[in-house]
Amino acid sequence: MADPWLALEFGVDPAERIAQVGAAHEAFLTGGTEAARRTDRRLRDVVANSWRRSAGALLSPEATPPVDLTDDALESYRAAHPLGRVLPLFRDLLGGIAQDGAHLMAVCDAYGRLLWVEGHPGVLRHAERMNFVPGARWDEAHAGTNAPGTALAVDHSVQIFATEHFSRPVQRWTCAAAPIHDPATGRLLGAVDITGGDHLANPHSLALVRATARAAEAQLAADRPAEPGVATVSALGRDEAELRVDGRRIRLGRRHSELLVLLVEHPEGRTGEQLGLDLYGDDRLHPVTLRAELSRLRRVLGPELLDSRPYRLRATVRADFRTVTALLDRGDPAGALGAYAGPLLPASDAPGVTRLRRLIDGQLRAAVLAGGDPALLATWTATAAGADDLAAWQALARALPPGAPRRPLAVARAHQLAQEYGLPRATWLQRPGN
């Protein structure tokens, strides 16, 4: 079976494939996904789905990505970003390719902002024409289908070939990228990418970025001092929580994930009745079922981690969702948003988890809206919780100055949401050009 993340199968003529996919792209723009698939039966699912997401973000196929960070703001952000610690490794593994006159090496953060773009000066000049520069926003919502942005969207290494790019100005390029995660928490940190010509559409380029990403994660893990007895919980943006402790990495099922989150949120401990109410609600309290679940959880975690009477975790626990709330308590919405990987256990309907999820999202949203920082507002609207947030899109449109590349998108999205919610056409933005 062919690798769905590779752009070209062995023996396929690149020029012929560029024409076929290009015809499918034009068909998609006029008739949607089904029209594209009728035009090209071999169109990859990862590409078709990405085109749909790009169009859903109201992105024009002629769009050029906006630049979020420049000058001192960019330097400060890069200096503080964890991927800066492995930049020498990226240069060591990919530097030769980046200097051969045909390729670029790029590293982006979890929101698609390019942190470093390196390579031959002539290739860099060509890339500048499409804003493939440090500080530019290359997630799918702002740049359309592309290897680093799509790798972040699907959390998987991927190759994007020529006319598979959604934005026409990018279709002369081919790229391969792989996501990079924090080895301690599993949180997505960003992606590493190589960009060049059609010759990159081969298994070697994809294997290279995959290996580079894994090497970066290994170095980040090696650089982090071990903390015996400290447990780390990741539960944001994922339906099943992950626990890491003493070298073990434990992925929990849905019910055990809910129990673990509730226990983390209440370090003082919870009675069986309290846990039952948080887990099942008033009308579904089943003490026998709860005891069985806790007994199974104790076997998974080990008896040294879970105490009873009351039920509580014995270890020192660091959880990603508590990091977000702690940063908000310290008045650092930018740090909180950077640590926010998505809603808490989004598929859970346990009353206690649902309340906590709404509380975290509500506090983060309020802090972002109160600050009025366009960069934070743009990041919030790129999250699952903020994608349909009318007030946030309106605030972003107001915060961006006339002429800002992203402002038309923000205005259009705000108007679209207002229409979907059955509200009259907005009068909230009294600026020319609307």
UniProtKB/TrEMBL annotation:
Residues 247-313 form the OmpR/PhoB-type domain. The lineage of its organism: Bacteria, Bacillati, Actinomycetota, Actinomycetes, Micromonosporales. The keyword Transcription applies. It holds the Pfam family GAF. Keywords: DNA-binding, Transcription, Transcription regulation. GO terms for molecular function: DNA binding. It comes from Micromonospora krabiensis. The keyword Ribonucleoprotein does not apply. One of its GO terms (biological process) is phosphorelay signal transduction system. InterPro entries: GAF, GAF-like_dom_sf, OmpR/PhoB-type_DNA-bd, WH-like_DNA-bd_sf. This is OmpR/PhoB-type domain-containing protein.
